[in-house]
Amino acid sequence: MNDHRILNALSYFSILFAPIIVPVLIWIFAKSEEVTHHAKVALLTHIIPTIAGFICFSSVFMTTLVNGGLLANMSLFVTGSLFVITLISIIGLFIFNIVRGIQMLCAKTEEDIWI
């Protein structure tokens, strides 16, 4: 099996065990442009849910402090909407990483891989 495909798949599958660390290490130490490209994409798709989760949970915390609880009408709607959007993005990017990892392992050539 091609080493490039294994490193590409490892970049995406690392969302299961070391989300940000493995793509950064692969990006730094890889010598192939193909591998660094996929490591950058994997790193981006690992960082986005982290930032979204931080914003969401800080919003919940601030809403609780400012309004005296989560039962204020407008703040509950905004915080709830932000929580749902964050949850959808985290699940979507998790599935995206798993699918991309499987594509990397199953692809015969670079032309078979999209993005």
From TrEMBL:
Membrane topology: Multi-pass membrane protein
TM helices/strands, residue ranges: 6-29, 41-62, 74-99
Superkingdom of source: Bacteria
Matching Pfam families: MamF_MmsF
Compartment(s): Membrane
InterPro entries: MamF_MmsF
Keywords (A to Z) from UniProt: Membrane, Transmembrane, Transmembrane helix
Protein name, per record: DUF4870 domain-containing protein
Source species of the chain: Listeria welshimeri
